[in-house]
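Moderator note: this is an archived Q&A kept for reference. The question asked for a predicted structure of one protein chain; the sequence and the answer are reproduced below.
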Amino acid sequence: MLPLIVDRQVADVVYGSRFLGRPHRSLYYHHYFANRLISLLFNILYNQTLSDIEVCYKMFRREVLREVHLTSDGFGFEIEISAQLSRVRHWRIYEVGISYYGRGYAEGKKINWHDGIKAILYLLKFRFSPIVLGGQSGRLR
């Protein structure tokens, strides 16, 4: 992720993707399907091509973070920050594969279907409501 921002200087934002990387642990199909569905809906609503919107690994240049104004906590963060970056349209967003070793419920996984419903609601909320960026509010593209 770092070489795209620092060495090659082609990216302002780099997302990891559990679906592009190897190796990864095969776990629950319903979780995989829900992640793909949320990413698909995000891509449709925000005109993007990201494969894994809910991934933990995200890297930003400092200038990007200065422009972002977050209001969410929890899993809403993932969609809110991606929504703001996508709506602004001047940041160069890249995606790279990462290695992923998921946890089972016995190992501490806590996400369930309620979180998927919340994610869909966040997709709609951040797409169709005014957002605040860099101290200015207003409706963006």
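Archived answer notes: Residues 137-141 have pLDDT under 50 and may be disordered.
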